[in-house]
């Protein structure tokens, strides 16, 4: 790899870690707030607290995998999975 390619891969990892980690943490927090059998405020607070751990883990994982492409695909699939779970677990909105 050339220095230019390595720099681009590092920039991609940083962007995926920041943006993708944030999106994953949000999706996990929303899903957790729906599935916990607590009062709404307690479930949301617990989801937000757990999201800090998820965000840190996502950023660490992005730099632990072999390639930037694998990091991008992995974070994207996790975001998609937890967003789908949150959507499926969302309560029905009554008008």
Q: How is this structure best described in words?
A:
With 95 residues, the chain is mainly alpha-helical. It has one domain (11-89). It has 3 helices and no strands. It has helices at residues 3-35, 40-64, 68-89. α2 (40-64) packs antiparallel against α3. It is elongated. It starts with a helix and ends in a 6-residue tail after the last helix. The model has no long low-confidence stretch (mean pLDDT 92).
Task: Tell me the layout of helices and strands.
Blueprint lengths: L2 H33 L4 H25 L3 H22 L6
What is the domain total for the residues?
1
The topology string of helices and strands comes to HHH
Shape: elongated
How helix-rich are the residues, as a percent range? over 70%
In percent, how much strand structure appears in the residues?
A: under 5%
Distance between the termini: 57 Å
Rg for CA atoms: 16 Å
Give me the count of strands.
0
Brief account:
The chain is mainly α and 95 residues long. The protein has helices spanning 3-35, 40-64, 68-89. It has one domain (11-89).
What are the main properties of this structure?
elongated, 0% strand, mainly alpha, 95 residues
């Amino acid at each position: 790899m050339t220095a230019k390619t390595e720099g681009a891969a590092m920039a991609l990892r940083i962007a995926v870690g920041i943006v993708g980690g944030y999106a994953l943490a949000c999706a996990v927090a929303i899903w957790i707030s729906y599935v916990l059998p607590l009062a709404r405020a307690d479930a949301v607070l617990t989801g937000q607290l757990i999201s800090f751990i998820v965000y840190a883990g996502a950023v660490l994982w992005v730099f632990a995998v072999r390639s930037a492409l694998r990091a991008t695909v992995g974070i994207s699939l996790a975001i998609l999975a937890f967003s789908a779970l949150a959507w499926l677990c969302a309560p029905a909105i009554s008008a």
